[in-house]
Amino acid sequence: MKFVQIKAPKKKKIALVAHDNMKPVLSKWCATHLLELKNQELFATGTTASKITNDTGLSVSPLLSGPMGGDQQIGAKIAERSLDMLIFFWDPLASMPHDPDVKALLRIAAVWNIPVACNPSSADYLISSPLMQQENEYRVPDYTAYQQARE
C-alpha cells in the first residue's frame, strides 16, 4: 500500500461519540475543554449531540444515533477525509448489540490514520497537543494507487 501526506487544518473537525453510560462523562469532558472545543467543528451521534449542546452550549452538528447508522456516518466522513479526530468514550464493561459497528468505526479511523481517544485521559492528551492549534501533516492511504494496482 502506498501513502500520501495530507494536511489537517488548524480548525479541526471532531466527531464526539459516547455509549449511554459514558454520555455524562463525555459531556463533562467537553465542559472542561470548552475553550479548546469552541474553536473546532464538532459532530456527534444521536442524543450525544443534544446532551453536549444542552450541557455546554457548544454548537454540535447532530448525526443519527450510533446503532441507527450514526457510527457509519462518522466512518464515511473519516473515509472521505472530512473528519480530523474521533473522541469516542465507549464503555468497555457493557455489552453492545452494535459492537460490530463500533469495531468497524475504530478500524476505519486506524486505516485513515486519524487520532482517536477512547477515554478521558487519552482525550486530554489529544486536546492539549500543540498540533490542535495548527495545521499538521499526516499520512493516509493513497487510494488512487490502490485502485490502479487492482485494475
Automatic annotation (TrEMBL):
UniProt function note: Catalyzes the formation of methylglyoxal from dihydroxyacetone phosphate.
NCBIfam families: MGSA, PRK05234.1
Organism domain of life: Bacteria
Protein name: Methylglyoxal synthase
Keyword Protein transport: no
Species this chain originates from: Glaciecola petra
Enzyme class: lyase
PROSITE patterns referenced in this protein's UniProt entry, alphabetically: METHYLGLYOXAL_SYNTH, MGS
